[in-house]
């Protein structure tokens, strides 16, 4: 009997000990689970949220309405412009941005502040808006830099790097959709360098993510899980759900330096003229490239050892498939940068470093003469065709010396310098529209 009581007591003690340990670990687990709510995403957002701003722009529009019908009409606008004063409207747009230095420079998209008459930013910890000024804008790369007018020390987020992104890693997008204030979405990297064809055959390289990007998120930061600034949210694919794009911060850093210092992005010069490769070459390799058709004497390309008939396959690991590709990618660099070019010479693949320089003053003139086959000069009448190359596209359409060049790519030009600068901006496009004037008649022509 004593033996049974003893065993029973020992059994009860053992069960009590087990129950105590179980309750202890459950209590410990509940504490641990509470701590788990502070995920890396929460920590990252806390780290950077103070540097993300909401942007509101105002655009003043003047529009003249018909006195008879009450709507804007080009005919009545011309006929009654002396009789009917224009009405003034103010429209608003919303976007996002990120402060990138203590002086209050804000990085955002160019389309967020396009045509803005006034720009305002709101910091998350303040209940009022601060006016900002446009420092510089580059429409081709869709980037702009603002400066908050009020002088003080601002919270900011240093640009990190984007060339080490991994497929599948977590990313965080912060923005101001629909004017609701900060909104956070998360996702993963789907592609580090997604090539998207833009207007006129040009291409841009984006980080592709499935982090939801709504209207108003444009210009906001894309972060990695550590809260590092790796991109600027800029686009959403309207034809697909849950696909967003961001400008890689490595691209943005190159552009920002020029925008702050010069107010615009200076065009870089490599000194080579790309041409198309054959279809047989593309089929054989599975991807294209551009043929080096000409190398300027003394140019960065010549100093780097690039030869005529080389085929450029990539710029800094971004593949090149056409002359438009080449110029689009080159436009993300500045004269202070160096670019790695992967070239094919015969059967040998080489990598060379090309130290880019500033665009020569006559670069646009030489490009026009070589590509389209006509030279221009400035005259009291404007920009006139001065010479034609035999067998060129310009000669084939019947262009004559003395014809006036009124527009290049939809922009009016009045001097040889304006003509050259506009050609530089459009280098690499498959075709450029010109407005030529002969006598009192104008002709729109696509060249080449």
Walk me through the structure.
- The structure is a single chain.
- This protein is α+β, with helices and mostly antiparallel strands and 448 residues long.
- The protein has four domains: 50-148, Thrombin, subunit H; 170-262, Beta Barrel (Thrombin, subunit H); 268-358, Pdz3 Domain, CATH 2.30.42; 363-447, Roll (Pdz3 Domain), CATH 2.30.42.
- It is 24% helix and 37% strand.
- It has ten helices and 26 strands.
- It has helices at residues 2-35, 40-48, 74-79, 249-262, 279-285, 300-303, 323-330, 363-371, 393-396, 416-426, and strands at residues 52-63, 87-99, 105-108, 118-122, 129-138, 143-148, 170-175, 183-197, 203-209, 221-224, 229-236, 244-248, 268-269, 272-276, 290-295, 311-315, 318-319, 338-345, 348-355, 357-358, 374-379, 382-388, 404-408, 411-412, 432-438, 441-447.
- The strands form five sheets. A six-stranded antiparallel beta barrel has the order 1-2-3-6-5-4. A six-stranded antiparallel β-barrel has the order 7-8-9-12-11-10. Strands 14, 15, 16, 17, 18 and 19 form a six-stranded antiparallel beta sheet that branches.
- Helix 8 (363-371) packs across helix 10.
- The chain is globular.
- Residues 1-6 have low confidence and may be disordered.
């Amino acid at each position: 009997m004593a033996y049974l009581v003893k065993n029973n007591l020992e059994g009860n003690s053992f069960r009590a000990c087990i129950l105590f340990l179980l309750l202890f670990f459950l209590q410990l687990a509940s504490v641990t689970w509470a701590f788990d709510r502070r995920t890396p995403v929460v920590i990252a957002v806390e780290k950077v949220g103070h540097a993300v701003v909401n942007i509101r722009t105002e655009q003043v529009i003047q529009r003249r309405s018909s006195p008879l019908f009450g709507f804007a009409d080009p005919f009545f606008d011309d006929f009654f412009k002396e009789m009917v004063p224009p009405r003034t409207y103010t429209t608003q747009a919303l976007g996002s941005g990120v402060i990138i230095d203590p002086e209050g420079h804000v990085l955002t998209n160019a389309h967020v502040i396009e045509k803005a008459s006034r720009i305002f930013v709101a910091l998350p910890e303040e209940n009022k808006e601060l006016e900002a000024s446009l420092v510089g804008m580059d429409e081709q790369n869709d980037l702009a830099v603002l400066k908050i007018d009020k002088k003080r020390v601002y919270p900011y987020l240093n640009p990190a790097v984007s060339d080490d992104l991994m497929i599948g890693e977590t990313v965080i997008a912060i923005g101001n959709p629909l004017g609701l204030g900060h909104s956070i979405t998360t996702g993963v990297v789907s592609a580090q360098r997604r090539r998207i064809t833009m207007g006129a055959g040009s291409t841009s390289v984006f980080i592709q993510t499935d982090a939801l990007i709504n209207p108003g998120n444009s210009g906001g930061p894309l972060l990695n899980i550590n809260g590092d600034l790796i991109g600027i949210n800029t686009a959403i694919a309207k034809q697909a759900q849950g696909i967003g794009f961001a400008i890689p911060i490595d691209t943005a850093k190159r552009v920002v330096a020029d925008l702050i210092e010069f107010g615009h992005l200076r065009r870089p010069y490599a000194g080579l003229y790309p041409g198309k490769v054959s279809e047989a070459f593309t089929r054989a390799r599975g991807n294209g490239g551009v043929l080096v058709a000409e190398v300027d004497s003394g140019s960065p390309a010549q100093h780097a050892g690039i030869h005529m008939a080389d085929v450029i396959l990539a710029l800094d690991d971004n593949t090149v498939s056409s002359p438009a590709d080449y110029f689009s990618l080159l436009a993300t660099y500045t004269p202070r940068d160096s670019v790695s070019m992967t070239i094919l010479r015969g059967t040998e693949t080489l990598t060379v470093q090309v130290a880019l320089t500033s665009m020569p003053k006559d670069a646009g003139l030489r490009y026009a003469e070589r590509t389209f086959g006509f030279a221009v000069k400035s005259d009291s009448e404007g920009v006139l065709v001065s010479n034609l190359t035999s067998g060129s596209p310009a000669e084939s359409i019947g262009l004559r010396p003395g014809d006036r060049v009124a527009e290049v790519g939809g922009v009016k030009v009045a001097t040889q310098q304006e003509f050259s600068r506009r050609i530089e901006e459009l280098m690499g496009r498959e075709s450029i529209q010109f407005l030529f004037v002969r006598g009192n008649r104008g002709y729109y022509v696509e060249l080449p």
